[in-house]
Amino acid sequence: xxxxxxxxxxxxxxxxxxxxxxxxxxxxxxxxxxxxxxxxxxxxxxxxxxxxxxxxxxxxxxxxxxxxxxxxxxxxxxxxxxxxxxxxxxxxxxxxxxxxxxxxxxxxxxxxxxxxxxxxxxxxxxxxxxxxxxxxxxxxxxxxxxxxxxxxxxxxxxxxxxxxxxxxxxxxxxxxxxxxxxxxxxxxxxxxxxxxxxxxxxxxxxxxxxxxxxxxxxxxxxxxxxxxxxxxxxxxxxx
Length: 239
Prior knowledge:
The chain has one helix and 18 strands. The protein is mostly beta strands. It has one domain: Jelly Rolls (Sandwich). A hairpin with a 2-residue loop joins strand 11 (about 140-150) and strand 12. The model is unreliable at about 1-20 (pLDDT under 50).
């Protein structure tokens, strides 16, 4: 074999071995559950981990309760909204998430009757950047509304559902990618096909209830909120 061909073959073999070595050195990773935050709202005193607002002027203490329906956080919907330039939130309950990757789950009892009455769950950076998932009455129909607002621009992907007062909602944020899920029993989950990506660092999980058009004061009852850390770890080999 000519020296040049031998040299080229040697280089190819060395590169292949080097790449194989890199592959062997990088373990296969899997997403596992880490720490858990859960609030069952079974106390008559709100936990210190909650911020009601998001600003002080957005808080109305006579429009929420832990005693009206024991075991639930009851938020009475107000004529409020954070849709694009219409930023007028009332009684948003914010929990500062200490995890980069996580899932948030809640169960809500809520019966909307007029358009855009809604109660839901959100991943919130500020009033112009958030993802929300709500049980809503929209355009004369009952629906679940997955939505995203970035830089003040709002998009939604409504899913019509049967008229039910009970709904489970779940949002996940994994390496900047968002996912939306809803369930009628907390066991079988339906995933929305949209998976937008965001570049948000510090975020909050938010519980809220609003009636931006009707202004009707209707109660939304939140049974619990669960925020679970998701983290990447090397796959454990089976023994």
